[in-house]
Amino acid sequence: PGLLLLTSFLLHVEEGRASPTRLVCDNRLIQKYIGEAKDMEKKAGQCQALPTLSCPTVLPLVDFSLQQWKSKSNETKRREILCDLALLVGAVTGAQGQVTQECGAKQLSQLYRHANTFLLLLQTFSWEAGPWEPGCSPRSIEHSHITGIFLTYRQLVQGKLRFFFHDLAKDLCK
């Protein structure tokens, strides 16, 4: 699935600047990624005896006000999502080191691939400013349950990413 996302992205790269046209204009793709996020969350919830994380992980708070969201530029939205994804990828990496159970480890590995693919993809898009640079500090919360990581990813894909792609579609899909 992550490879599909990367492939669809690479097929639509313009010289010198990434064009998210297919990902943005084909609404079925974001719906597919939302479905995959739900599936990963469900499967993680079905894993037997997932441990509580001995070292809590820091997750981004991905809730948002739609009214405030609409007032932001696409570049600001992109940077905000990048901050959330960077923190989420770090949380997944930290959790992977604490989960030895096969089911949980497999789901975390899949989540890492998906979130990291979106992170790499959005890093290549640029509109107003130069390339993305880490160092942001999104609103965050500590979490001790692995299922919270999957919930956060699903909420991010279903919320900010979906609305971001919807906003981009207005300009790119004429």
TrEMBL record:
Q: Which domain of life is it from?
A: Eukaryota
The answer to whether the entry has keyword Chloroplast is no
Pfam families assigned to the protein according to its UniProt record, in alphabetical order: EPO_TPO
GO biological process: what's one of them?
Answer: positive regulation of ERK1 and ERK2 cascade
Annotated compartments: Secreted
Alphabetically sorted, this entry's keywords are: Disulfide bond, Glycoprotein, Hormone, Secreted, Signal
Question: One GO term of the cellular component aspect?
Answer: extracellular region
Which InterPro entries does the UniProt record give? Answer: 4_helix_cytokine-like_core (IPR009079), EPO/TPO_CS (IPR019767), EPO_TPO (IPR001323), Thrombopoietin (IPR003978)
Q: Name one GO molecular function term.
A: cytokine activity
Q: Which family does it belong to?
A: Belongs to the EPO/TPO family.
Q: What is this protein called?
A: TPO protein
